[in-house]
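Backbones bend. Our protein:
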Amino acid sequence: MKKIFLLAVLASGLAFGQAKKVVSSDVQWWGYKIAKSEASSHNGTVKVKSGDMIMKGNQLVGGTFVLDMTSINATDLSGEYQQKLNGHLKNGDFFEVEKYPTATFQITGVKENNDKVYNSLVTGILR
């Protein structure tokens, strides 16, 4: 599996405290293709198997999450194109989910977001 930098939004209904176990959540992802000939993007979800959020007061400051890569799903497409992209993301070009069914996402940065839907934009490294 390749190391990939991600920008993710953690969608969770957790109460804030010092440290919280993630019980059930999804990560929303955005992927960008930047090439001279074309620029495009896709987005979707991947389920969180487990994880820990590190809190300082009411602020998320870190954490590590185990992602179920078999659940990766592009949500900006449908039908045949969605199936093709999902298959492409799961094969050896990206995440090799047959060999690596889970991946660890380690938070490397948290930025406050003024969007009313999400509290923070989270960046990290997927291994």
About this structure: Residues 1-7, 9-18 have pLDDT under 50 and may be disordered. The helical segments are 79-90. Residues 53 and 63 are 4 Å apart (CA to CA). Strands lie at 4-11, 19-21, 25-34, 39-56, 59-74, 102-112, 120-126.
